[in-house]
Amino acid sequence: MEKERFYLLDIARAVAAICVVLQHYQHFYFISGRNYPINFVRDQQPFYDLLKPFYLFGTVAVQFFFVLSGFIFFLMYSKSIYERKVNIKNFFILRISRLYPLHILTLISVMILQLFYFNLNGDYFVNNINDFKHFVYHFFLIQEWGFAEGWAFNHPSWSISVEILLYIIFFITVFIGINNLRKSLLALVISFTIFVLTLDYIEGISLGLVCFYIGGVTFFISSIIKKILLKNNLQKKIILIILLLLNIIVFGRFLNNFFLEYQKSLQFLIGENFYILLFLIKFPMIILNLSILQFYFKNLGKPFQLFGDLSYTIYLLHFVIQIIFSLIDKSLYEINFDSNYIFIIFFFTLFISSFFIYQYIELKMKLLIRKKFIR
Predict the structure, then answer these.
(1) Which of 121, 151, 254, 363 has its CA 20 to 30 A from that of 94?
(2) Residue 134 to residues 130, 145, 147, 158: CA-CA distances in angstroms?
(3) What torsion, rounded to 10 degrees, do the Cα atoms 59, 347, 50, 22 define?
């Protein structure tokens, strides 16, 4: 079956990136690292009534990234890796060429801007650990592998550090035979076991691993459903009715209280950051719904493809833009970050900067690296 372009999932990825930025808007209010001032009033943040859930819980979008990555990577690479059509060298060149140019640009930008910020204020903006050792960790994207001692440099890149490790694990597991629903479910069970056993040590990695294989399982379920939908028979109608009922039950808040209590009873085992309903049911259902919609409407969402393309840029660049705004606030002009207008200006600046960096740096560097190293 020909691989589709999932424009709707691109848009979902962009929305997730914006959710993280919204949650990180609080950075503007921090004093001395990650401490709020005494007079901080959360509901005075811009458009708070409208954006409250994102201000409070926006960072769970990172786990959505991991689930979505699992889905996309099993879609794009599992068959070709399993059939030995893509070797490990080309696989990692493809990934590094996509991730590294922007990562290095934002890492160096944060390093320079933090030096200016420290000279001006005697303190760093938000992340206080900016030494040579952590620069090396961040440069090689290994900071989240148990090396970093705290929040440093362009901290949002922690999830990219996890992704790099997930790519290694993904390639190995697919190479040795994780190529169907049953085997991907086994990989998910093993991942969850690792998560429980390592919860107190490498939660970021192990949670990312679980979410990644949730995405893999979602891909294989999606593939099975699409094969059924290609047939015009009773089975197709039953599947569509089941999907409709599942959506009503899952997103109609009927399960929320049950899973909240269930999660509390398992907190000793899974900790406070594993949201059972969200990660195991809602995130996969969102991806499944969007992939099936795309199955029927091939070009749905295509006019907004650019937002998906910019999602990674927005995600890694927003902390750089925040330092610049804070430097202006500290040295040139006092900024009222509660202002709706300032909020709009910040996001406008972020989007415009992301567009030009993506268009004239990321794309060009990606193509240059691939042309040079992939034969």
Answers:
(1) 151
(2) 6, 12, 8, 12
(3) 10
SS3 357: helix
Helical axes 61-82 vs 203-229, angle rounded to 10°: 60
Q: What is the DSSP string of 198-226?
A: TTTT-HHHHHHHHHHHHHHHHHHHHHHHH
The helix (H) or strand (E) run that includes residue 34 is none
Residues contacting 328, CB < 8 A, separation 6+: 335
pLDDT at 3 (0 to 100): 53
Its pTM stands at 0.93
For residue 339, give Cα distances in angstroms to 123, 253, 347. Answer: 25, 33, 13
* DSSP label at residue 28: G
Whole-number Å distance between alpha carbons of 102 and 312: 9
141 vs 157: CA distance, rounded Å: 8
Cα gap 3→77, rounded to integer Å: 11
Distance CA 56, CA 79 (A): 39
User: Quick one: how far is CA 176 from the chain centroid?
Assistant: 27
Give the C-alpha separation, 171 to 77, whole Å. 9
Would you state the structure tokens that stand for residue 202, as one six-digit string? 């490498």
Is residue 163 pLDDT above 90, yes or no?
yes
Q: What is the largest CA-CA distance in the chain?
A: 70
End-to-end CA distance of the chain: 26
CB 279 within 8 A of CB 210: yes
pLDDT tens by residue, 302-327: 999 999 999 999 999 999 999 999 99
Q: Is residue 345 within a helix (H) or strand (E), and if so which, with residue range?
A: helix 340-357
